[in-house]
Amino acid sequence: MTPVRFVVATYNIWGLYRWPEREEALRGFLTDVRPDILALQELKPETLEVIDEVLHDFERVDDPFEGWTREGNIYWHRDLFEKVEHGAEDIGILEPLRRLFWVRLRIAGTDRTLVVATAHYTWVGHKVERETHVNPRVAQAEKTIEALDRLVPPDEPLIFMGDLNESNNAIKKLREDGLTDCWRGRGTYPPPTHPAFPTAKGAPSVLDWQLYRGPLRPMVRGVVDYAKGDLAPSDQAGAGRLQPRTEKRRSGPERLDFRLCLQFNATCSGRMQPTLRIRPGIHPYSALNLSNSRGGCF
């Protein structure tokens, strides 16, 4: 059967830093570059309102738990997916409203489902970590795996992505327990996702990840820079694949082909091929970037 192909992206939209200065750039990004599934971190009611307005043909999780509107959420194109169920699991993230947010989606016209999950692990500069000298993200990774193993059977496609604030032990734990990151899955190594100059400063590091499990085949990945004029929507950049969708979705695929765009100030789209510059490992424009980190994509 013809595989289903879709684009998945994750984006830390930087809370309300330099907001509403970044609003036009965020609107431009959402209009010009639309993944089929979008996972968000550092969401706020002000940015949620803008995203809802621009992504009018998308659905998201609507839940009374405040974390869904002040930390994380997941959007999906309503013509391509429908929600089956959702949840927010406490995995020990120190920031009070952060959770492992997840949604189970049914692919339109099929009986196939997949689970998409996102998280924003604790920042390395958190007071508790500074005082205890203990990395809490390893325990958060362990609890992530425990939750995902409980929620997702081995034969169901799973995509876990987000700003994990980590490039070492927590990522190793996720890999050891059965998740494959998008770069290793293609036999290569990720470029830095943070910082995106000149918005953020610091040594280049990989903080933002996309991992998967089950009957999924990642495709092309890379770093994509996006800006609206001389502004970007966030302080983090993104990585992605630019390739228009050429085949029609068919029912009952044996495998799902997908393109993942990691934490980004730009991304790729399966429905269009915008004019963006793909520059793996190179930081973008000489003005405000979309985010303070960059991203990765299959």
Spell out the key features of this protein.
alpha/beta; six-stranded mixed beta sheet; 298 residues; 18% helix; 14 strands; 6 helices
Structural description of this entry:
- With 298 residues, the protein is an alpha/beta fold.
- The chain contains six helices and 14 strands.
- The chain has a six-stranded mixed β-sheet. The protein has a six-stranded mixed β-sheet with strand order 5-6-7-8-10-9, with no helix packed on it.
- The longest helix has 16 residues, at 136-151.
- The radius of gyration is 17 Å and the shape is globular.
Number of strands: 14
- Helical stretch count? 6
Tell me the fraction of residues in β-strands, as a range. Answer: 15-25%
Poorly predicted spans: 239-254, 259-291, 294-298
| Biggest sheet details | 6 strands, mixed
- Portion of residues in helices? 10-25%
Largest sheet strand order: 3-4-2-1-13-11
What order do the helices and strands follow? EHEHEHEEEEHHEHEEEEEE
Rounded to the nearest angstrom, the distance between the terminal CA atoms is: 22 Å
Record the SSE blueprint.
Layout: E1 4-12, H1 23-32, E2 37-41, H2 45-54, E3 58-60, H3 67-70, E4 73-77, E5 81-89, E6 100-107, E7 113-120, H4 127-132, H5 136-151, E8 158-163, H6 169-176, E9 180-181, E10 208-213, E11 216-218, E12 224-225, E13 256-261, E14 277-278
Parallel strand pairs: 1-2, 1-13, 7-8, 11-13
Antiparallel strand pairs: 2-4, 3-4, 5-6, 6-7, 8-10, 9-10, 12-14
